[in-house]
Amino acid sequence: MTRTAVRPEANPRAAFRGDVEGLRALAVVLVLVGHASQQLVPGGFVGVDVFFVISGFLITGLLVAEVNRTGRLSLIGFYGRRAKRLLPAAVVVLLATLLLTFAFLPRTRWSSTGWDVVFSGLYAMNWRLAEQSVDYLAANRAPSILQHFWSLGVEEQFYLVWPLLLAAAVWFGRRRYARTGYLLFALTLVAVPSFAWSVWLTDDNPARAYFVTTTRMWELALGGFLALLAGHLQRLPRLVAAALAWCGLVAIVASAALLTESSAFPGYLALAPTLGTAAVIAGGLAAGGFGPDVLLALPPVRAVGAISYSLYLWHWPLLVVAEARFGELSTVTGLAVAAFAVVPAALTYRFIENPIRMSTTLTWEPARALQLGALCTGVSLLAGLAFQFTVPPTSTPMPPTLAVPTVGGTGVPVAAAPTVLGAAALGGSPASSDAGVPVDRVGSFVPDPLVASKDGPDAWRDGCHADQRSSAAKACQYGDPNGSFTVALAGDSHAAQWLPALQRVAESKKWRLRSYTKSSCPFIDGVVALDSRPYPSCTEWNEKLRAQLTGAERPNVLVVSSSFYVMMEDGERVTGQPQAAFAEALRRTWAATVAAGIPVIVLRDTPYHDRDIAECVSENPKNLTRCASPRDKVLAGGGGPAHETAARDNTKVHLVDLNSAICPRERCAPVIGGALVYRDNNHITATYAATLAPRLATALDRVLG
């Protein structure tokens, strides 16, 4: 459940088009079914593009009609109509979402949901999601319960600009034909750069491209072109118009069936659903009874179209809550939840959306509609901010320098004592230690699950963990800056998670430690996939890093680790034997490093759980065994199997496996020795990593001699 859409307004003063209402129904059904089960409609997210084109067509048509009728454009009237149309239903759903969050979602999500309400109330949710899409702190978070408000933000941001451009065209073009020319020119100025930017950014940063307004404005502008050219389109021959409309409908359905989450979208691929929608709208102007309106204008279809805005608003929070409570939803369950959304949607439409939209007072007094909109926005902001007070006070993540075992000459943790923390409690035989047995309850532990996601390595705060956009191989230096022995740490966030342990080893042994890490990017000679597409900044980062490691920044030993990645060949994902392809790329990379005179130490990857362990602990403080996953299952995920394969048969590549101190029993305890082991489903906390320092020191001594 990741890609979401929003329905454009249906203004009562617009000339009613049954086929357009039916298009709304089709689009919202695609979105709902796509969210409920991607197996059924993998590209259901194209509904957003259908909505954008419809919105551009209707809103531009209304604005132009007003100008043609009155010779002027009332911005107060326009924004008043938007406010009464969208905000009342939206604020009801935002408030209900806070209640659903309080009642059903883990405490770890409460604070972020409160801020999501604030951003949604300001129609800026898309920019919040765009920033989070490249934020390694947010990379493993569950989808926001208000993620679907992103497209509302896109639409309203466009309509902050478009009426102003239209007003300028009215001022320049006193006559109707001249005014139309100026409007077409203004739309072209919006559409062409936006489409070009969409294509470029989709290739460069697809996650960000999906959410930002600038990559979507051309879709709304396309609808505007249709409104301006409607008079010409009405003169199309009936059979030509009908054929055009049917082809457009096929294009929409085919896009939903053939596109997937891994498609390079929006970019060029967004042309299929948007041009398809444009074809249905354009053809419908002249097709008569031969077009797809014979299906789209059927009463049941139009009924779904009528409530589609409220239906869209409600379906996503219900799906998120259901998934949080019951785990991954089956196709049948997901569809049932999506279908249930019809109930609150119909009630919202009947008692909130429609009465306010049809209000005579608000129609004739747009200033009051603006006041209502301001009230709704204010309520959203205050509710979101006030919700922060429901989050219990927590301590910040415990500094790993406190209450952790020291690195002794033997590398064996100090025996259990009041100040012993984490892996130190396991003693010398983790597999037989009671400290590693999952239990239902423990005393106090650190860090608090509410702040566990922030309990990461110093590289985050020191500015040397590159995000997904950066290709700079920047190092942070730790340990003894004057040390004669240099250790380099390289890889993705699964390498960075070992930094707290390595720092303590380096400090105790007077080593110089350099950390080179990048989000979602292993140390590898090859092209890895990010969102099922080539990850060019990772390739560039690796090239620069290899040059540095074999040049002026040559270390005495290189320590690496990583998650698992799908490799790319000739622009396509290697799907036949992805584990083997990844292992071979690692083997080749490590062999080349060894050939350059640099020994390689591989820290086998850590467990991969099916759920966020910090969230689970937060939700089950008296039944922690619910959060204990089978050891064999979680160690079979991630990069561990590939690490084992790639490290074989090279005496200068040494595999170090500390998972016996991370998951020592048949089931992995979420808390060991008063320390929360995991900050999400696949990274260990910095607090726990620091307690592994003595064991890591022992392993490194064994390798280095």
TrEMBL record:
Transmembrane segments: 21-38, 44-65, 86-105, 157-174, 181-201, 207-230, 239-259, 265-287, 294-312, 332-352, 372-391
GO terms for biological process, alphabetical: lipopolysaccharide biosynthetic process
GO cellular component terms, A-Z: membrane
Every SGNH domain range: 464-697
Top-rank lineage group of the source organism: Bacteria
Leader sequence segment: none
Annotated ranges, domain Acyltransferase: 19-346
Keywords: Membrane, Transmembrane, Transmembrane helix
GO molecular function, one term: acyltransferase activity, transferring groups other than amino-acyl groups
PANTHER family tied to this protein: ACETYLTRANSFERASE (PTHR23028), ACYL_TRANSF_3 DOMAIN-CONTAINING PROTEIN (PTHR23028:SF53)
Name this polypeptide is given: Peptidoglycan/LPS O-acetylase OafA/YrhL
Natural source organism: Micromonospora violae
